[in-house]
């Protein structure tokens, strides 16, 4: 049997700005010269919102009735079109030969993401008080008020700063191929073997026309005095693709089923699977700087001197907006600490790999009842993680310069500006001419001091461990009753794995340079899970045809799930370690657990908590690491968990047949949170030093272990009644 298929999935999204804003015709309607698109977009105008002395409403004043800094803007601040298209093709061939059932097949897919950004093509104009202020005062004030008025600057057309962009339209894509072959071999009446092999090849992400830039750790940067660390471009200066494609995606699989007796079966299996490489979306304009999508800026040459006017518009050569510079010194700007926002892990083209196995024993107890016991395990490597921070300080860097951040004097030195007498006396100076010496000594010691934080994208050095004992019993059509009961006792651990989960989509990282410090109970860990699914069809009752018609064929269903609570992460340390470490994660480390102290003031599952008067977590159970020190404990503990959250839903329904063929009437009732459990929200456990605040009525408003009484975790019981007529 031969099967072949083609398909395409897609997602299309536009931001809220209407297309009429993009095709506004600003030059014809407003006389505004300089838009960069044929439709002449409506401009974005900032600084003109005011409540005093004219202007638009919406500005707060400085308390004396005079407008201070204007907020808000007029025009299109964001206009984006986002498009995902994934065409696919699959083919499969099946062949039965003797005791063998063979299958061969393959698949191909092309994943694409287009981020079209059109905002700013009509120009972005910002107005400030300087253009209508007193030049001799510059940024000073009189009687606490600004001199000058941004709305007056707008009336004069005196623009303080302006920019124009060419718009952006990059398309990122990657291809993937897969082929496989497998055989189900019935060796004897009691033994069946499954074996197969799959090969996957996932090409690396790239921009369709190589218009992509990123941080290059080995690029010589002339704008930073020749230090390493600049901007590198895809397929330029030997950079090539930013990621390497993994060519060894070989995945063998093996399975065995052995019938021990007429009522007993033993099964086992082992296999390797590869996951997809990281998904790409919303990289933003910093991912394509220098490749032909440019932004031109106008700023004052001196205080209060407008670089452009509304009447004169924006004058520039059209080629300046589309010129590809491929400049390795695109960042930093003169006298600034700024830079590319991405460093893509070169090994990001290597997909995650899961090594999994299971062994299962199944017993038929009666013709309608069976029981199963199984052990399931897997080990994951190369998982998506957040363990990549290319421009962070480390203890080794400090030691190289004879500094110890746990020493108060060294801490003070690290947080002092380089131009301070303290830093100069210690021999610290700017890393290169033009480096802003108002930055701290800690900034000057970073691996790339010309840049700030550089997020590491697509790190894939996470690991996972999973082991589970699974028990299951099934009842099949016992007088209309079907039921499955399952219990799982499991262990789940991970190291650096980053994915949305129970911690509110926060990636928990301790020290990216100490991988072992990130070994933890998995954020979705639930050691014990019990669930049951029930379905029962009612029989006809009594001898009366009318009674039988009313009582028969009603279907009752229920799903009930009870499990351990998710882990509560340890509180974030409050020792301001990131002031010197300058890590990608602001919350750099975690508090230490105090031995002998209870973790809870009230048991979260006691159903006895009054959140208006009671805090539930014990701040004395945690201690802050010393200044400059890392937390010593794990990120999560097995005995520190949120409340258990039962899931209970039930339903009742029936299909009523009619005498006319092909016509029926169905009635269904569904109930969620059927026992109407009022589940309180999760407690605030981030900061043990957070002050406890009460309102005027004496009720708690915040604090460590505070539960917001107005934010229930799940809604009250809900029901749905639906009726369908099919014909």
Structural commentary:
The protein has an 18-stranded antiparallel β-sheet that branches. Strands 3-2-6-10-18 form a five-stranded mixed β-sheet, with no helix packed on it. It has a two-stranded antiparallel ribbon with strand order 7-8. It starts with a strand and ends with a strand. A hairpin with a 2-residue loop joins strand 24 and strand 25. With 727 residues, the protein is mainly β.
Q: What attributes does this structure have?
A:
mainly beta, single chain, 727 residues, 18-stranded antiparallel β-sheet
Concise summary:
The protein is mostly beta strands. The strands form nine sheets. It has an 18-stranded antiparallel β-sheet that branches.
Fraction of residues in H or I helices: under 10%
* Overall average pLDDT: 89
Number of helices: 10
What's the alpha carbon Rg, rounded to whole Å?
33 Å
What gap, in angstroms, lies between the N and C termini? Answer: 35 Å
Structural class: mainly beta
The main β sheet shows up as: 18 strands, antiparallel
Q: Beta-sheet strand percentage? A: 35-45%
- The unreliable regions are 58-70, 500-505
Tally of strands: 37
Shape: globular
Write the layout of secondary structure elements.
Elements: E1 2-14, H1 19-22, H2 26-30, E2 44-46, E3 73-74, E4 80-97, E5 100-117, E6 124-126, E7 141-142, E8 145-146, H3 150-156, E9 158-159, E10 161-165, E11 171-186, E12 191-202, E13 206-207, E14 213-221, E15 227-233, E16 249-261, E17 264-274, E18 295-298, E19 308-309, H4 319-322, E20 343-344, E21 353-366, E22 369-385, H5 395-400, H6 408-414, H7 421-425, H8 441-444, E23 456-457, E24 459-478, E25 481-495, E26 519-521, E27 528-537, H9 545-551, E28 555-563, E29 567-569, H10 578-581, E30 592-593, E31 622-623, E32 636-641, E33 647-657, E34 664-672, E35 693-694, E36 700-702, E37 718-726
Parallel strand pairs: 2-6, 20-23
Antiparallel strand pairs: 1-4, 2-3, 4-5, 5-11, 6-10, 7-8, 9-19, 10-18, 11-12, 11-13, 12-16, 14-15, 16-17, 17-21, 21-22, 22-24, 24-25, 25-26, 25-27, 27-28, 28-33, 29-32, 30-31, 33-34, 34-37, 35-36
């Amino acid at each position: 049997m031969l099967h072949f298929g083609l398909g395409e999935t897609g997602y299309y999204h536009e931001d809220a700005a209407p297309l009429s804003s993009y095709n506004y015709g600003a030059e014809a309607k407003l006389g505004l010269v300089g838009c960069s698109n044929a439709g002449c977009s409506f401009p974005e105008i900032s600084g003109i919102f005011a409540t005093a002395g004219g202007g638009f409403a919406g500005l707060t004043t400085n308390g004396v009735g005079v407008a201070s800094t204007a907020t808000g803007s007029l025009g299109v601040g964001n206009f984006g079109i986002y498009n995902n298209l994934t065409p696919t093709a699959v083919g499969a061939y099946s062949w039965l030969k003797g005791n063998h059932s063979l299958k061969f097949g393959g698949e191909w897919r092309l994943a694409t993401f287009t981020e079209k950004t059109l905002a700013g093509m009509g120009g972005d104009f910002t107005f400030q008080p300087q253009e209508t202020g007193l030049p001799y005062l510059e940024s000073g004030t009189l009687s606490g008020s600004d001199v000058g008025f941004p709305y007056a600057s707008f009336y004069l057309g005196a623009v303080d700063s302006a920019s124009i962009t060419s718009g952006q339209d990059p398309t990122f894509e990657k291809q993937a191929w897969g082929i496989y072959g497998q055989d189900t071999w019935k060796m004897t009446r009691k033994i069946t073997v499954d074996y197969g092999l799959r090969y996957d090849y996932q090409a690396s992400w790239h921009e369709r026309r190589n218009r992509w830039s990123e941080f290059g750790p080995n690029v010589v940067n002339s704008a930073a005095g020749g230090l390493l660390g600049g901007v590198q471009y895809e397929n330029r200066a030997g950079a090539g693709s930013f990621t390497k494609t993994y060519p060894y995606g070989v995945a063998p699989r093996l399975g065995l089923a052995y019938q021990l007796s007429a009522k007993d079966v033993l099964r086992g299996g082992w296999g390797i699977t590869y996951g997809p490489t990281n998904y790409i979306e919303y990289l933003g304009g910093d991912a394509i700087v220098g490749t032909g999508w440019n932004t031109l800026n106008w700023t004052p040459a001196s205080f209060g001197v407008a670089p452009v006017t509304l009447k004169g518009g924006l004058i520039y050569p059209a080629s300046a907006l589309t010129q590809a510079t491929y400049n390795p010194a695109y960042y930093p700007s003169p006298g600034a600490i700024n830079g590319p926002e991405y460093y893509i892990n070169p090994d990001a083209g290597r997909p995650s790999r899961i090594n999994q196995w299971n062994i299962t024993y199944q017993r038929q107890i009666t013709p309608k009842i069976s029981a199963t016991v199984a052990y399931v395990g897997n080990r994951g490597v190369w998982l998506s993680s957040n363990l990549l921070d290319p421009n962070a300080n480390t203890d080794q860097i400090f030691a190289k310069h004879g500094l110890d951040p746990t020493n108060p004097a060294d801490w003070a030195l690290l947080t002092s500006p380089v131009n301070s007498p303290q830093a100069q006396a210690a021999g610290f100076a700017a890393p290169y001419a033009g480096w802003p010496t108002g930055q701290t000594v800690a900034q000057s010691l970073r691996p790339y001091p010309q840049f700030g934080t550089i997020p590491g994208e697509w790190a894939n050095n996470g690991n996972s461990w999973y082991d589970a004992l699974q028990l299951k019993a099934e009842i099949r059509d016992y007088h209309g009753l079907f039921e499955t009961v399952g219990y799982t006792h499991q262990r789940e651990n991970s190291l650096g794995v980053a994915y949305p989960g129970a911690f509110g989509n926060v990636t928990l990282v301790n020290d990216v340079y100490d991988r072992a410090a990130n070994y933890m109970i998995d954020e979705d860990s639930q050691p014990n899970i019990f669930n049951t699914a029930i379905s029962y069809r009612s029989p006809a009752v009594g001898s009366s045809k009318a009674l039988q018609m009313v009582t028969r064929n009603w279907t009752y269903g229920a799903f009930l799930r009870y499990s351990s609570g998710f882990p509560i992460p340890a509180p974030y340390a409050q020792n301001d370690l990131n002031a010197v470490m300058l890590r990608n994660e602001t919350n750099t480390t975690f508090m230490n657990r105090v031995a002998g102290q209870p973790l809870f003031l009230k048991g979260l599952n006691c159903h006895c908590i009054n959140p208006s008067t009671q805090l539930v977590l014990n701040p004395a159970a945690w201690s802050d690491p010393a200044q400059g020190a890392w937390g010593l404990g794990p990120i999560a503990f097995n005995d520190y968990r949120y409340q258990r959250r039962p899931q209970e839903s039930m339903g009742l329904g029936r299909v009523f047949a009619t005498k006319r063929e092909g016509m029926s009437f169905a009635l269904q009732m569904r109930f969620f949170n059927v026992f109407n459990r009022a589940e309180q929200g999760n407690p605030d456990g981030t900061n043990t030093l957070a002050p406890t605040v009460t309102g005027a009525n004496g009720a708690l408003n915040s604090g460590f272990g505070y539960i917001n009484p107005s934010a229930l975790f799940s809604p009250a019981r809900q029901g749905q009644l639906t009726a369908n007529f099919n014909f």
